[in-house]
Structures are given as C-alpha cells and as structure tokens.
Amino acid sequence: MTIILAHRGYSSKFPENTMKAFVKTAEAGAEGLELDVQMTKDGELVVIHDEKIDRTTNGKGYVKDYTAKEIRKFDAGQKEPIPFLKDVFTWLSGNSMICNIEFKNGLFPYKGMEDKVISLVREYQLEKRIILSSFNHYSVVYANQFAPEIETAPILAEGLYMPWIYAQSIRSKGFHPNFKAAPNEIIKQSLEHNIAIRPYTVNNESEMERLMKAGCSAIITDDPIKAFKVREGI
Ligand code: G3P
Ligand code: CA
C-alpha cells in the first residue's frame, strides 16, 4: 500500500507547517506528514518552509535573526504560531503518524542543525517513525553516518539515471524525487532494489493513481483526502 504523507501538513486546506495542519492530517486519515525545519538565532528548531517568515506569517525577516521567544509572536495563519519541532514531537508521541523532516539548510548552513534534530528524535524515541530528508545531500550523508538507526532520503529535484544506486551509495534506504522525475520504470527498478521511493508534491488525481498503481512506497501531497479517495478506488 502506498502511504500518504501530507506535505507541510494538510496544506491545501490549512496554514502550512502549523499544528493545525498536522492535526488535520491525522484526522484526514493519512499515515504521515512532511514538514520543514529551520533554526532561530538562539538555536531553536522551528517548523517553517522559507528562510524568511514573510510569505507565511504576518512578520518580516529571516528566521535566523529571531530568537525562539520572538518568533512565536507571529501569526502563521488562523492564529497559529510557527511551531517548535519539539511541540510537534510531543504531539507525535500521542499517535502513530510517520513524520518526514526536511532539513532546510540549503541557503544557510545552520550550524549543528542535524545534530539537534537527531538528538530530539532520540529524546522522544521516534527513531522508527521519522524519515530525515534534504535537498542538501551532505546533511543526509551526515545523518546516515551519525544516526544509522533513523531512515533517510535524499530529495531529488531532477531525474537521475539510476537514483536507487545513488541512494544505496550514500546508505539511504529511499529517495524522494519530484514526481515528474518518477516514471514507472524508475519506480519498478527502485523497488526491485529495495529502495523506497516517495515522490513529491503530487496533487493531481491521475498522477496519484499512476504512482500508487506503480507501487510507490509513499506519495507526498498537499491534499491527503484526495489521495485517500484515489487510493480507495484502486
Ligand atoms: O519533500 C519534498 C518537498 O517538500 C520539497 O519541496 O519546496 O516543498 O520543501 P518543498
Ligand atoms: Ca519540504
């Protein structure tokens, strides 16, 4: 069965990367969610997609220039604050959701971010329910080296010739391609090599159906309800 991961939570209906979007993901019946992590000036892990808070909150400026206390004052939509990763983990402790954490360290190399996330995962004993991913593959390699008990996946914006070989070469058990870079043959070969494939960000019904029928391990979507209905019809 193809697992449904809600991209930034149930973001087609609720403010992305907020507790509300995550709770609604669980209510929608999806098995898991994807979220993005950045770091404040004083080293707090916060859940937000952009390096700047401008697009998703009523504030302005870079996440890295605010302290944890300061950043909590902004409204990320429907009066929801920007969540701390530890708050999401407290909530995850009370359910069985899978959580894909994306290290958003492409623009700024947030010093120590990987170690902080890994420590928090261990503190909350969520090792078996977390997938660490990033466009920054050094972070994925680092996690594979220092936290081999946690699953990882490099994110691939464009197609690779044999992505399953690449995943194997960096000791990841899966990879997350843009869905346009996930033709059926790549899915088939990846699965035959025991490499999980979880395409993003799939919002079109016919694409959802194709990827599910091809046996993808998961799909990452803004609309978990739509994906759920498509899956039921297969
Ligand atoms: O996990 C894949 C996807 O989330 C990457 O794209 O820009 O939505 O973080 P983006
Ligand atoms: Ca993401």
UniProtKB/TrEMBL annotation:
What's a Gene Ontology MF term here? phosphoric diester hydrolase activity
Q: Which GO terms describe its biological process?
A: lipid metabolic process
Which PROSITE patterns does this chain map to?
A: GP_PDE
Classification via Pfam families:
GDPD
Matching InterPro entries: GP_PDE_dom, PLC-like_Pdiesterase_TIM-brl
Q: Which residues form the GP-PDE domain?
A: 2-231
Q: Which PANTHER family match?
A: GLYCEROPHOSPHODIESTER PHOSPHODIESTERASE, CYTOPLASMIC (PTHR46211:SF1), GLYCEROPHOSPHORYL DIESTER PHOSPHODIESTERASE (PTHR46211)
What is the protein name given in its UniProt record? Answer: Glycerophosphoryl diester phosphodiesterase
